[in-house]
Amino acid sequence: MNTQVHILPTKPGEDPNRRAHQAQVKRAILEGQAWGLTYLLARVRDRAPYDNYALPNSLEVFEFTLKGLLRLEMMGKPQYAGWRRMFGSNTKAHEMSTWRSRVALKAFASSAAALDFIRADPLWTWQAQPPTIPAGRKDDDWHVVFQVQDVWIAKGRYRWSELLARFLLEESRALHLVGLFEPLPPAGGGSHA
Amino acid sequence: MPKHFATLIWDWQPAGPLVTGYSQNLAQATRRIERGARKVVNLQTHDASADHTLRASFLATSVKGVFRSAAEWLVERVATEMGAERFVTCGYGLAVPESKQRRLGITQRSGLCPVCQVFGGTGCLSGRDVAPAQRQVGHVRFSFNAANDATYGRTADSPRYQFAWEQVDWEQVEHTGKPLLIEQLRFEPDTVLEARVEDADDFALALLWLAGDLISSGFFRFGRFTSRGYGVVRLQPRACLRADLSTLLSAAEPLPQPLTDTTSGHAAARAFLGQEALAVVTARVKPWVESFSLRSAV
Asked: Which pTM value belongs to this model?
């Protein structure tokens, strides 16, 4: 029997590398704009992902609180903690210390509803050969659409959407990545190193 | 060629909650909420169509800001695809801290970027000696439902939100954080958004339609809490009119041409302009990027 305890860290302000983490995100936003738009689709993996936290019962409340949950989940993972400010920052300091989130969230009752939202994006009409978006199911629990405005990070080695996708695939206890769609790939191709 | 005017019309279709308006401090100062109350309320303006009563509203001027952001993003993307590594629009240039401006080549810039030429602006040297000389009034103005500066709707409170870190249950300790209530706006389903454009060349129309697509996708959103599921509005192109002044003033006033079977601004541009909108934007951005490269080389 697995008795491992999973505790979600609580306070978003307990980062000993706060300044370094702020600086790396600031630099990525200033110098690493990828000019690409990416959808990530994730399903709820576990409604009680931590011993001290369970998802709200309402989809609307879940949608609103999800950003905070993901930031807290990232805070406990050293390789991701420094990038959680890509969800936005409001430090009230001067000069570019306030920036908007590079990912917007939207929650849906099922994969069918989430994929309908993605399919309705007019940006698909910009492509000569738009991909076929699957239909999904109407009975497979909550799903979340992440709309990522992409940024090259880690000195251009990979993108914010790739890091977030890996986090959702391997690290998040609340969500699990099930799809990725690119209505606008990064300008200038897939490398920035 | 005579100066042309245009009207672009979209159906305004919110796809989720919307909220805009007062900051917490202003709401307290104006006594719309009690001090310390965790409640977000909307801006209120006088509704001319309802006895000038104060009603929760969504201003067309904020729509212009989002269109401008989307247009800047698009123009910078197009410039990057041309290989312009350090190209920035004036809006972005203004946001960059001074310490970074030289590195990004912003101190060498003069003139208005293609976005400023449509939306107006002072260039990215705003506030310095050169700025007033090149100030330009915007050529586009947004309104709702035939020239209303705002759209009005019903309001309803959100569920009682608590942020994730307020919900964490440590050793069954009861949490004392007050829940947050957000006044959400719901608009009438027949709301339409209009953009009136002076000097309505192909570039201006293509830029507006493509910016409308970026907004409609949900990647660019309106109001507050945009990264938490709020602010998504689908913009469905409905109609367009472009004419010179003599035609507009003629006895037979022209009507906007309906855009049927156009699910996107990209498709609307193809139907109305007979051209690919991205090609039109690229053609305008190219000389600007080239002139910037020349100035950098000097």
From this structure: 0.93
